[in-house]
Structures are given as C-alpha cells and as structure tokens.
Amino acid sequence: MRICFRQRVVGFAAAALTFGFMGSVQAATLNVEMSNPDLLGLVQSVHLQMVDEVGDGCWTNINEVRAQAQAILAAAQINVAQVEVPDSATHPALVISASGQRVEGGYCIVQTEARLSFVTMSRFAHGTADGNVTIVNYNSLSIMNRTTVAVVSNENVDAEVLNWVGQVVTAWSNEILARRQAENMPALRQRMGLSN
Fold first, then answer.
1. What pairing do the DSSP bridges indicate for beta strands 93-102 and 45-54?
2. Burial class (CB in 10 A: 0-12, 13-18, 19+), 23
3. Which domain range does residue 111 map to?
4. Whole-model pTM?
5. Number of domains into which the chain is organized
6. Do 39 and 73 form a contact (C-beta atoms < 8 A)?
7. Going by C-beta distance under 8 Å and a sequence separation of 6 or more, which residues neighbour residue 180?
C-alpha cells in the first residue's frame, strides 16, 4: 500500500492557513509519495496507548508493559507524546491492545496486537444545482505497521505479553531509526523541521 504524503501535508497546510499559522512546511515537501515502510522514517514521536480488554486476571502487568515500551522508545530517542488525535506520520499512535479471558479448564487465552497508525483527515465539498454546498469530513486509519500474537497460559499471560511487546517495540524502533537514514530522508526531515 502506498500513501500519498502530499495529501497529508496539504491537509496540514490548509489547516495551518485556516488558523493563521504555517510552521516549517515547505512547498518542496508537498510532492512526496511514500510507502508505509518509508513513512516510518518520518516518525518523530508516538502517542502510546494501552487497551486492556482482558478479564479474569489473565493480564495484570499493563503498567509494566507500558513502562518497558516507553524505555525502549526513549533509548531509541523516539519521544512519547500525549496528543488528542494522532493525525500524521510524524506523530502516530502506538496502540498495544489485548483481549481475552479465562476459559473452561482455567486457561487464559489472550490475543495481543501492536499497531502503529495515524488518522488521515480529508474534506470534500459537494455542490448541488441549487447552489448549496455540503462539506463532508472523512477520517480513515492509516496503518504503518501491525502485528498480533495469541497466547495461552494456565495462570496469566504477563510474562509472554511483556516479552512479545518488548521484541516488537525494539524491532519497530530499530526500523524507524534505520528509515530516518534512508536515501533522501534526512533532507526531507530537515525541510519538515524534524530532528534526526
């Protein structure tokens, strides 16, 4: 899947003009088309979100998992920032979610997902013959990376989830750092006002 980064930046520029600020976005960045893996090179910070939909004491160390993810990101110099809506490739959401429960026989079955994504916002205007104009706002989720694992345990899945999330966040952090240095990416990041 390819994402036309031009649309994202143009959307930002339109909002900036509407609200009277323009920041460091340059015209040169408006014509960049990137694949999802390449977009990882633009990540400056992430909004870390934990979603716990696990019952029956099957996952009890969510705070430890969050702290581990934050430590891995900090070691890679990827900021964790709280934002209302993760709406760009430079500040996506890192969502770690788990759902599951204890089943007959006492075993915990838990599905865990890690997702790096951002919300793409588009606005369309539709004119009618009588001169009325309808503006439609459309939001979609752009997924940069996603992986899942299912875990079964006769006690809880704390150790397994902690280990798996650590591996995933480490791998993604390493990929983000590598993509930042890919061809043309340092120059693009500099034009966008992002630190390398």
1. parallel
2. exposed
3. 45-177
4. 0.77
5. 1
6. no
7. 41, 186, 189, 196
